[in-house]
């Protein structure tokens, strides 16, 4: 039995149009995300084989492969949930929509919603090669931080919990936006599902001792 499985999309391929075309969503989920799931499962099998045979010649490559594919699977699983149709999504998180705690935390951590939005936009849009812009909960200080992730797994602070992720890989936008990555990231804000982000913030905050940093 595979350890990891591809989650279903929470909406139709066309749900995020015109911000993201159905063709992109189908390929991105059914091909790219599926490949990370398979990669993570295959790598676990190869590690089990290495343990059985005590053949450790490929350990560095296998550990790198595990981090890459597993992180890809996790980030994409969050990515789909982080988005909703442009009629329901976008705008700012507001107390009247039941996401006031998230709104307050963003202001506290970044000075203002505008400051947060600018930082995440820049982090995502200026990734060199493949990467992500990520809003994460940092459990040591209880702050929200923005991370610019290389590939799926690099440049990440240990222990941080991603709650809003912008995929800045070319496969996320090239069929529709061509080389205009900045336009894609700007457009992404119209489909952010703040209810989902707020739910993730609450969940991350409720387990501050998960790292056992406090005595
Ligand atoms: Mn992707």
Helices and strands in order, then pairings?
Layout: H1 22-53, H2 59-82, H3 100-110, H4 113-125, E1 131-138, E2 143-150, E3 161-167, H5 174-177, H6 181-188, H7 194-205
Antiparallel strand pairs: 1-2, 1-3
The chain binds manganese (II) ion.
Manganese (II) ion binds next to α1.
Major beta sheet summary: 3 strands, antiparallel
Helicity, as a percent range: 40-55%
User: Distance N terminus to C terminus?
Assistant: 39 Å
CATH architecture of the largest domain: 3-Layer(bab) Sandwich
Q: Ligands in the structure?
A: manganese (II) ion
Q: What structural class do the secondary elements suggest?
A: mainly alpha
Order of helical and strand elements: HHHHEEEHHH
What integer is the average pLDDT?
96
Describe this structure in words.
- With 215 residues, this protein is mainly α.
- It folds into 2 domains: 22-81, Helix Hairpins (Orthogonal Bundle), CATH 1.10.287.990; 95-209, minor pseudopilin epsh fold (3-Layer(bab) Sandwich).
- It has helices spanning 22-53, 59-82, 100-110, 113-125, 174-177, 181-188, 194-205; strands at residues 131-138, 143-150, 161-167.
- Strands 2-1-3 form a 3-stranded antiparallel β-sheet.
- Strand 1 (131-138) and strand 2 form a beta hairpin.
- Helix 1 (22-53) packs antiparallel against helix 2 and helix 4 runs antiparallel to helix 6.
- The longest helix has 32 residues, at 22-53.
- The mean pLDDT is 96.
- The site of manganese (II) ion has 7 residues, from helix 1.
């Amino acid at each position: 039995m595979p350890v990891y499985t591809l989650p279903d999309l929470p909406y139709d391929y066309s749900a995020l149009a015109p911000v993201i075309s159905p063709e992109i969503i189908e390929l991105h989920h059914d091909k790219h995300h599926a490949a990370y799931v398979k990669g993570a499962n295959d790598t676990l099998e190869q590690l089990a084989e290495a343990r059985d045979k005590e053949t450790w010649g490929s350990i560095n490559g296998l550990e790198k492969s595990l981090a890459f594919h597993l992180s890809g699977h996790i980030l994409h699983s969050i990515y789909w949930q982080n988005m909703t149709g442009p009629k329901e999504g976008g705008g700012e998180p507001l107390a009247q929509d039941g996401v006031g705690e998230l709104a307050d935390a963003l202001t506290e951590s970044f000075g203002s919603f505008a400051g947060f939005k600018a930082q995440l936009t820049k982090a995502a849009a200026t990734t060199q090669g493949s990467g992500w812009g990520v809003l994460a909960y940092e459990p040591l200080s209880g702050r929200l931080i923005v991370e610019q992730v290389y590939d799926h797994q690099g440049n990440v602070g240990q222990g941080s919990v991603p709650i809003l992720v912008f995929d800045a890989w070319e496969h996320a936008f090239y069929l529709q936006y061509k080389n205009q990555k900045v336009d894609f990231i700007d457009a992404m804000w119209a489909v952010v599902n703040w209810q989902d982000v707020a739910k993730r913030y609450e969940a991350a905050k409720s387990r501050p001792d998960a790292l056992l940093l406090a005595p």
